[in-house]
Every structure is written in structure tokens, then in C-alpha cells.
Amino acid sequence: MHHPKLYARVHKKHHEWPAPIAITFVYSTRMEFILNMIPVVLGPMLTNPHLFTLWAWYAFVHLRGLKNHSGYDIPGLTSSEEHNYHHMMSNACFSRSPVLDWLHGTDKGFRAYMARKELEKKG
Hints:
Layout: H1 4-11, H2 30-47, H3 51-68, H4 81-89, H5 98-104, H6 108-122
């Protein structure tokens, strides 16, 4: 969504909230909603899961999105700090996985930001 040809027309609306709240998880253009739903719907369409599995999958996807935009740090789950930083800067932490951001180097600014926050706590 952050490709120069897509961002202004498709994803910028979602970034109107630099400090996201849970409801902004679904705050997007119609095109972004459709593009975001393709991977969510494609798996169940290809695998024809049991109804319970389908409900569990959709619950997981939507609860993860709500959590990532809530600002809360829930023990046992990945932190929403990466996504908060993504909304503050809009040029880092693009992935849904911190491991992929680390692998592609899109989390360098975030790691430096967290190190500064840690120093401020100590200092």
C-alpha cells in the first residue's frame, strides 16, 4: 500500500490517524478495503475450511488488526509499538510481522526510536 503509485490514491486515508485507535483498523478507501480482503478471503476460498475454522480465521484477522491499532501491549502477543511507529512515520515497519521488517531492513528507524525511548527511561 505504500508504493508511490498506490499510497496517495489508496492508503493515505488510513494514515490520517498518526496515533491510531482500534476503529481506524477499518478506516480506509474502498479500494484499500478490497485489496486488504483478498488475502483474507483467498485462503478460505482455496481450502474450503470447516465453518468453525472459518470463524476462527476471520476473528483472528480482525482482532489482530484491532490490537495493532489499539496502542495496547497485550502479554503473549506481538507489540503494537511497530504499527504505532508506522503510523507516526509512514515510511517504516510495513510488514504484518516484525521478523519480515527486520529481514528487509524496514525497522531500522523503529529500533533506533525504541533505543532512544529506553535511554530516556534510564536517563
